Amino acid sequence: MIQLEHVTKTYPKASRPSLDDVSVGIEKGEFVFFIGPSGSGKSTIIKLLLHEVTPNRGKVHVNSRDVTAMRSWKIPSFRRQIGCVFQDFRLLPNRTAYENVAFALEVIGKTKAVARRVVPEVLELVGLGGKEHRYPHELSGGEQQRVAVARAFVNRPLILLADEPTGNLDPDTSIEIMRLLDRINRTGTTVVMVTHDSNIVNQMRRRVVEIESGRIVRDQARGVYG
Amino acid sequence: MRGKYVLSEVMVGLWRNVTMTIAMIITLAVSLTMLGASALIFTQVNDMKAYYYDKIEVSIFLKPDVNAEQRDGLRAALDADPLVREVIYESKDQAYEKFRTMYADTPALIEAVKPGQLPESFRVKLKDPERYQDIYTAYNGRDGIDTILDQRRLLEKIFGILGSVQNMALVAAIIMAVAALLLVGNTIQVAAYSKRREVAVMKLVGASNWFIQAPFVLEAVVAGVFGALIGFAALAVGKWLLLDGSLADLTNLLTPISWGKVMIMLPLMAGVGAVVSAITAWVTLRFYLRV
Questions:
Q1: Which residues from chain B sit within 8 angstroms of residue A151, using beta carbons?
Q2: Low-confidence stretches of chain B (pLDDT beneath 70)
Q3: What local confidence, expressed as pLDDT, does residue B103 receive?
Q4: If exposure means fewest CB atoms within 10 Å of the residue's CB, which of A138, B28, B30, B32 is most exposed?
Q5: Same domain, yes or no, for A223 and A115?
Q6: Which residue in B has a C-alpha nearest to residue A93's C-alpha?
Q7: Rounded distance, CA A144 to CA A140, Å?
Q8: What is the reported pTM?
Q9: Three-state SS at B162
């Protein structure tokens, strides 16, 4: 599903690489945590998988497509197969929960009729039934992140990338979001999550890949934060 | 739905930054007016050339003491010359007649000139009026010839003036166009900045590049077309007030500019305005959005 082969990424003007000769493979349907301290390079992995940055060396394969050499006009259709959730939610403040999710559908060419059918369904799934017409500022942080998860999942992507999705949430809300990601994972979606929230990693007992200074120092099938 | 979405985005975008939009449209309008004016002068000069070059001739004036042999020799040479289309001989009497009819309303002038004082001449029409110089070098200094006069030289002075007016309009058009395009680029940047969240989400969920860029590019196109409409209105008012109004005598002396020609400027200006603005917007987005 996802293959990184000897990937090295050095940002311009950086003294040392963010990722240094990293190789890792992720199977379809897996749930993987990338952990490590700030600046260890774990967020760079998400950026590589989204083709927001390209590696200096090595190859990145996602959905059996070579992302490294992907032409820029192919990126949009590639990203439609990937859902994405971030620490800062990235919702549109002037649109309601429903509109935020529907926007993601409409800008990739789905009709309003499709949105009317699919959006309430997915909002129900993330536990926001009845709050469709609230604006982001009328929702709690956890609820906003649920909207973001709904938006990421509404296209039924093969892969869900989550970059510190609980970074702005309190522990209880974080656990609710993790339950949601777990449910999504059980539908067969591969989930890749970057975090430094040790509580969550310890509770979930899923595969853990630890990165330190751009290198993989641990890859454990049912790991803890350690 | 998508068309409606794009259209409402365009209107919101233009309205959000309305002072900048107005500045952009005004500079576009002035630039396009200048462009239209210079295009009009260009077609005008071409028309005048076609009209007058057909009528003008080279006059070869003969010396008063020219003898029949020289005259006949010249005539034969002109008739055989491949550059010459037509030769008309004008005797002293004919020249006097022509002079009398030309200045019929100034008898004093006619009084002053007696028959026989005006020189006889050959009026030569050239196949290609541009090749006057060849005729001049071939015949100048030949026995019996006094002077060789090319009417085209007079016309070229007028064309020269019109040409420099055209160049001035073109230079003004280019300078204004630079200002206009900087404003277009700036407006598009502001628009893209104010929609950066939407753009970020669109990129994230995989909206196609054209779908992300279309509202911004169309914003520039709409401004370009508005600028062209205003510029065209200015051009039409200019023709109505100046050429048909206060400068009517001058325009009739030259060939008048028809409304049809002015009308053709509308699609030209709108096309140039729209295409150039669109390209500017697109290039700006390539640098600014990195989609």
A1: 205
A2: 1-2, 250-255, 290-291
A3: 80
A4: A138
A5: no
A6: B197
A7: 6
A8: 0.73
A9: helix
